Amino acid sequence: MTLSTRVLTGLGLGILTGLAFGELVSFLGVVGQGFILLLQMTVLPYVAVSLISGLGSLRPAEARSLARTAGIFLLVLWGLALTAVLLMPLAFPGWKAAKFFSTSLVEARESFDFLGLYIPSNPFQSLAGGVVPAVVVFSSALGLALMRVERKGALIESLSAIDEALLEVTNFVVSLAPYGVFAIAAHAAGSMDLAQFRGLQVYALAYAVTALVLSLWVFPVLLTTLTPFRYREVLAPTRDALVTAFATGSVFVVLPILANRSKELLRARAGESEEAGHVVDVVVPISFTLPSAGKLLTMSFVLFAGWLSGFSLSYAEYPSFVATGILSFFASTFIAVPFLLDLYRIPSDTFQLFVIADSIVGNRFGAMLAAVHILTLTLLAACGTTGLIALRGKTLLRWALVSAGLILAALGAVRATFEAVDRPYEGYRLFIERPLLLEPAAWSEPLGSPEVLRGSERTGPTLERIRRRGALRVGYGSDQLPFAFRNQDGQLVGFDIEMAHALAKDLGVSVEFLRIELARAHVLLDQGYLDIVMSNLAITPQRLGEVAFSAPHLEQTLAFIVKDHRRKEFNSRNAVRRLKSLKLGVPGPGAEYYVAKIRQYLPQAEIIRLDSPRTFFTQHSRELDGLVYSAEAGSAWTLIYPQFTVAVPQPDVLAVPVGYAVARGDREMADFVSAWVLLKQKDRTIDGLFDYWIQGKEPPGRKRRWSVLRDVLGWTGE
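The structure assignment produced for this chain is given below.
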């Protein structure tokens, strides 16, 4: 059984194992991660050694000749592949999507340091830190300098030996691929959300059809347009090499075949030309160390991951994405892809999707495209040095138009295929169906106005009154997603509701909830109708004069809630300040602090006061440009109204502390709640509730992945 067959077998068995056992095989994720790390282990040393020895072994005259011919054609092929990459988002369907809050929204982004990325002031630090572009620049510079060194034979021989040793290590790791791919596939199929698999189908199909168009039309027809070769004349004798590359998922194993077939084709057209044969001997091995079209096409996964996670790259970021991607892909895709994901602040957990997609389509279609890339580059370079290149304008124009039409049609067909399939929006359901995470205290919800509560209980210290009553009275406001709201079953849930239950349980009493107007919170606290208000209250100067606050338990980030298509207009300070005639809504009582900040930040904006955030979505979204609100709470509202999104202007990330309010002057109660909040931070209760209610994460074991063992055979594990 060949290695490729064993890898495919491992992939299939891994998927079946994950579907059968579900999260019971989640431990295999460690094995899969270990395999990925082993794959990355030799990549950077191999890139450095290969570039130094490959370039250093050339003579200056050969290098100049290749720069004039192969260099130009290499840029052309790169340009075609990168054009296909940038067109790939056309295949992504316009599915309705919204996400829970992500810390990526509010993390301060460091400025992009081009000099530090490309110029290795400390090459060893670049190697240790995995800064691929800097390693490529250093290795290329050393290899070019080595061309002019006379006594380089021993060094080149030593580097070649190291190169062979690194390949031996790599081959050993690759031999473990069936087991590594099995572990990765089992972990993914057993724990990954099925919605992610549905999204992955989009990338897999778009990548496959694009690779086929480039391999079977764009590259070979460009070759036949510029040279005397005919289409069938090129592909017929090289078909075995292309099929082998596809079957094994490796272009390395077919390099000798590509070199021999290239020489045979050139002999048929240029006779026994030593110059052409020498070009083949140089270009084929050197081109293997350079990013091929198959590798560059993998850059499309970064665009796909951005679309899937809601962090799409803007058009303004495309130039840096292209430049960085080319140099990054001098290394393995397993280093370049996570590097680019991190660089453009795309959630890193999408890399697991890439591993699966690469095993399914990337290895095979990418290897076939890489083989066609090397063949095309080699023949174009050889024909260029022997005078067989002919530029025919009309023919080139016809090729360009047909190629563009084929790629656009293929990507459009992929999009139409997935848009024809009904994919229901699930964000609302995932949010509104969430039950309480922790075991609740005994509770009730008094009916009527606060004034009907018994006045005899309004006297004495608050803690004493709570214990005497046997109940903690908690006020909360309306429209306080995701802190206090009713889920689909009518149950009162949310972050602050869970915290109120926890406080009551620690006090050994029940809890009574009362929905109030937050503008009256200080009055109800002063008169003793309420013991505490737990309802996402920001600590502002105005409120500090009305109530006493506990120590902050959260920070919320000031953001804009805008229509999806306007997100880029509000993502940066400079972009927002360029907007004219802004009309912004600011909801809720106690908003003076936010109004003052907005007027200072955007003096041209007109501020409209709203009763609640809900009125923005239901009544004022057409007349207002956006809603000034917190990113944490605003993300929950976008799950209800997915045509809106959250934008945090960088680098002006403004955080506001949030605390729980008690009666003004009640320091005993305020100090008690502050100490209790500290305890909840230390035992990670607050972190767990934040992850669940605000970031939408399921706690381990809470939501089990569907599996044959549990859901079909009825095994419970008890």
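Interim note for the steering committee: The domain at 556-657 is CATH 3.40.190.10 (D-Maltodextrin-Binding Protein; domain 2). The chain has a mean pLDDT of 82.
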